[in-house]
């Protein structure tokens, strides 16, 4: 959903400027769509997580290329940016991150701390009121723990300046008051003010329930520019950051792409370029309408 805004409202985190005519509009998250910064979708932050990998804090990503244009990086001269933390799953952790983005969009960025009813936050995370029980509350607590564990480290070229922060500074759940408190880092607000933002359709994620690889590829492809894409199998393996044998990874990726085509999101062709496997993404339809390659 887009909402036209005046130019003096460009400080809103979901404000976007159209490149064709320079006019401004605002991305509004709702029950069907969530606004997401492109950088986190392109990087291997949210990936398929096997049961044996849950809780492992073993992912380390070089995010310099994607995040070096952040104002804090440019002003402070940070040229080396890394993201480290627990493996974040698509099934739970990404939904929690969607809830965090929605919560900040609804309650504003005037303060780094927001407080909202637990039931409202759970709904933003895709948890139905009928499913709210001790198990789902614990799962949400564990997911907040995972998201808050993600560390961003900025370092200058000469190594004499550095900054360490988190995607979420603090997250607290209080069952006595039935509230959730989330604290973010104001120096990272710009992460949500990128010119390239994605109004990510949630219908596809719902259609791909329990298919984390297909969900991960969906958010990755949605972060890419419009038009035909040429992506190698190797790049998809890197994005998914799986640890299984390469042949098995290739098989999993092919099955995930087939799932994306089955729900009406993707039209693609697999080709061989020398010894490299390539995919031509002819078309993508977030509304899940049937696609036909031209």
Report what the structure shows:
- This protein has helices at 38-42, 64-67, 71-76, 93-107, 118-124, 134-148, 202-207, 212-222, 233-240, 246-262; strands at residues 2-4, 15-17, 24-27, 33-37, 59-62, 78-85, 113-117, 151-156, 162-166, 170-174, 179-183, 197-201, 229-232, 266-273, 276-284.
- It is α+β, with helices and mostly antiparallel strands and 294 residues long.
- The chain has 3 domains: 1-28, no CATH class; 31-192, Arc Repressor Mutant, subunit A (Orthogonal Bundle), CATH 1.10.10; 201-284, Arc Repressor Mutant, subunit A.
- The strands form 5 sheets. It has a 4-stranded antiparallel sheet.
- α4 (93-107) packs across α5 (118-124) and α8 packs across α10 (246-262).
């Amino acid at each position: 959903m887009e909402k036209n805004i005046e130019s003096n409202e460009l400080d809103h985190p979901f404000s976007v400027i159209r490149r064709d005519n320079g006019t401004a509009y605002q991305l509004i998250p709702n029950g069907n769509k969530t606004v997401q910064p492109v950088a986190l979708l392109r990087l291997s932050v949210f990936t398929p997580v096997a049961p044996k990998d849950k809780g492992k804090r073993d992912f380390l990503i070089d995010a310099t290329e994607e995040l070096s244009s952040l104002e804090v990086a440019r002003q402070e001269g940070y040229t080396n940016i890394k993201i480290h933390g627990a493996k974040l799953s698509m099934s739970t952790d990404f939904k929690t991150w969607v809830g965090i983005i929605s919560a900040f969009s609804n309650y504003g960025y005037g303060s780094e701390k927001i407080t909202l009813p637990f039931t409202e936050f759970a709904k933003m995370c895709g948890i139905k009121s009928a499913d709210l029980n001790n198990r789902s509350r614990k799962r949400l607590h564990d997911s907040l723990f995972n998201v808050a564990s993600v560390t961003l480290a900025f370092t200058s070229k000469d190594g004499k300046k550095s900054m360490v922060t988190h995607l979420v500074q603090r997250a607290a759940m209080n069952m006595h008051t039935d509230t959730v408190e989330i604290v973010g880092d104001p120096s990272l607000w710009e992460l949500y003010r990128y010119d390239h933002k994605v109004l990510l359709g949630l219908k596809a994620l719902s259609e791909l329930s329990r298919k984390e690889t297909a969900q991960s590829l969906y958010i990755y492809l949605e972060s890419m520019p419009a038009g035909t894409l040429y992506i190698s199998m190797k790049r998809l393996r890197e994005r998914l950051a799986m640890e299984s044998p390469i042949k098995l990874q290739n098989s999993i990726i092919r099955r995930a792409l087939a799932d994306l085509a089955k729900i009406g999101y993707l039209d693609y062709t697999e080709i061989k370029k020398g010894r490299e496997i390539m995919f031509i993404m002819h078309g993508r339809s977030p509304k899940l309408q049937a696609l036909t390659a031209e």
